Amino acid sequence: MSLSKFESMLKTNDVYFFDAVEFETIIEHYLNIGKHSLAKKAVQLGLEQHPTSIQLKLMRVEILIFENELQEAIKMLTKIEALEPHNDEVFIQKAVIFSKKNKHVEAISILKESLQYIEDPSDVWSMMGMEYLYLDDFENARLNFAKCIEVDFEDYSSLYNLVYCFDMEGSHEDAIRYLNAYVDKNPYCEVAWHQLGKQYFELGMFKEALTSFDYAVLIDESFIGGYLEKAKTLEELKDYEEAIKNYLITLELDDPTAFAYVRIGQCYEKLKNTHTAMHFYKKAVHEDPLLDRGWIMLTNVCYKENNYQKALYYINKAIQIDETNALYWRRYGDINLKLNFYEEAVKAFSTCIDLGDQEIEIYVALADILLFLGDFNEALRRLIQAKKIYKEFAEVEYRLCGLFMILEKEEYSLTHLKNALAIDYEYHSIVKELYPTVYENERVQKIISNYKKAIR
Q1: Is 70 exceeded by the pLDDT of residue 319?
Q2: Which sections of the protein are TPR repeats (predicted)?
Q3: Which residue segment(s) compose the domain that 416 sits in?
Q4: If exposure means fewest CB atoms within 10 Å of the residue's CB, which of 32, 100, 163, 421 is most exposed?
Q5: What is the DSSP letter of 425?
Q6: Angle at CA 376, nearest 5°, toward 371 and 377?
Q7: Residue 333 placed within a domain
Q8: Is 150 part of a structural domain of the chain?
């Protein structure tokens, strides 16, 4: 009633009287629904009618903090504190200001001081937990969230935060002990069973994880997160048909997601049913055309089935979404090689190197394509790059031998040949395969022959 009366007043510019409690209710309503301008207006009118109301002044402080008017908020708090030095809300708002200034140690100190004046400390413990999180002090954060849960077993926000602390500490066994004790006291908490399952999953204890997720979805049959984690666990246990069933349940419970479609597709791939896998991958990219993972899964299926033209279409889609993914460029290079599009393959593997993918296979493939295209100097440049990383690799040394010989730098060529033979004699056949004229060189034949005699 007071809310509609207040909004009517704003529309007509009439001034109605409200008692302080009514103003508090109106302001709280607007703050809860995020209408800060109306909350601010209500505070202003409230203080005009009730200039001595401490609670309205504290609400004014809250709005000032939200608007980042911290100095003004501090001035008001100082005046309120002079009147009510032990007002718990004064401590809370001072802590919030310190936190906004990234002074988390000071915020914690204020909150600790407030505990002696506050009847219900749960909110303070929760705030202290968050301040400790800002400091990456996960142990103290966890201890404060645990206190919240002791008071209210259904404080799931604190439960999530507590488990997060265990995760950040890498203490999955401790988390499991805590959560098992929790479900002993609160066995019908699907959130706790879900979190317990995730901890078991982290440790590779998939059967125990599955049991936990089973309990979670038994307690709440509409718990989408429970079904998703259960399905992922079933995948780890190689029960792909059951995994598919659980993913499909999530599609019935809520709007379909590209993530679920991709996971279903992967399960069908594991079951060797590539036709159905493709169907679900296509549904994934239809649901979310910007999901590069869906496009790469389509690419890989087509590549395995030697359908390189379609694979090229799909990999282009993936690269358009994430052009800095070196793995996509590597696959693009492989596909173009299969299609004999050598210039595009050069572009692909060069991009891989530029993006930081410096696997020896990339350098070798690039050098071999450049050799085929007759770009000997660029092939040599790439191999010299590779040698700086892979100093004693026969794959690089034999190719340097061949290229230096082609470029009429025979002494360099023979030096690299000797290096290569010392690393891996058997692999010298690559010279015959890639550089047949070099292999037939008299001095090359003599060095290979001499080395063969020496190792007998």
Answers
A1: yes
A2: 122-155, 190-223, 258-291, 292-325
A3: 385-456
A4: 32
A5: S
A6: 145
A7: no
A8: no
